[in-house]
Amino acid sequence: MNIFYLFWIPRKLSGMRHDKFLIVLNHYTMEETIQEIFKLAEKKMLEQGGYDRHAFKQFVEESIMYFREKGKLTDDDSDEFIISQLMSLWDNRVVEDDIEKHNI
């Protein structure tokens, strides 16, 4: 989902003959943000040595707080939804790793 912001710039400020409108696209989609959080949580796992599902969830929660501080997530973004999506990615990754490990 893309978010558009519309800014009105009065002609006094723009120096133009007419009022201007500026449209800004928030280039972060939820899917991209979830992928970034996933990568950050994986990086934390490797650095700190926590490799189980519980540790991953903890790293995800820390990463969500970090993204909120940076302004990439707002109060409108559902933590529960993000966590459920990331835990689903984790489960899929574990299954894929097991398949590769055992040549299934």
Walk me through the structure.
- A two-stranded antiparallel ribbon has the order 1-2.
- Residues 1-5 and 21-25 have low confidence and may be disordered.
- It is 62% helix and 13% strand.
- It is α+β, with helices and mostly antiparallel strands and 104 residues long.
- It has one domain (29-102).
- It has helices at residues 11-14, 30-48, 53-70, 79-102; strands at residues 3-9, 20-26.
- Helix 2 packs across helix 3 (53-70), helix 2 crosses helix 4 (79-102) and helix 3 (53-70) packs across helix 4.
- The relative contact order is 0.12.
List the helices and strands and how they pair.
Blueprint: E1 3-9, H1 11-14, E2 20-26, H2 30-48, H3 53-70, H4 79-102
Antiparallel strand pairs: 1-2
Helix pairs in contact: 2-3, 2-4, 3-4
